[in-house]
Amino acid sequence: MLLQNLRAKVGARLNGDKEAGFTLIELLVVMLILGILAAIALPAFFNQKDKAGDSKAKENAHTAQVAVETYATENSGSYTGVDLTKLHKIEPTISTTAGVVGNPSATPPVAAKEGLIVSSTASNQYEIQSVSSNGNVFKIVNTAGTMTYPCTTKETGGCPASEKWNE
Fold it and tell me: Which domain range does residue 68 map to?
């Protein structure tokens, strides 16, 4: 009896009867679900990538700020003459060729890819501009001891709606 059942099953399988598999509808439903998941996940991934680039730009600006304050301490409290080369001697992680091209006072600064611009127009003030990989500009502006932290392209990456990245 068992042998007859086994022969019948093998014979049916060889003849194409009772073939198991997925229907076209089942495959389409699975593809639809995968498409919905991808539509949700991909924008979130790209937003995180922008935030990471902005975070790196903020870190570069803060590192430059610490180096500028160190420079001023070593120069009787004056920020006059500060530049990337001098800051690199204080903090080697600051690049002397940080992608800067053109005028640092332009808004936004002209920079290739990511960049860092440090400028001082008076002995008691300086401005640091750090450009992220996605083009957002993060600034640290010290005007006679009053610090401001503006950024461009609000509500993208790491620049909040207030356009002040220290909040």
Answer: 22-148
The token pair that represents 144 in the structure block:
């006679």
Reported as a single tens digit per residue, the pLDDT across 125-135 is: 888 888 888 88
Domain assignment of residue 70, yes or no: yes
Q: How many folded domains does the chain comprise?
A: 1
Residue 9 counted as domain residue: no
**One-letter identity of residue 71:** Y
**pTM here?**
0.65
165 belongs to a structural domain: no
CA 133 to chain centre: 7
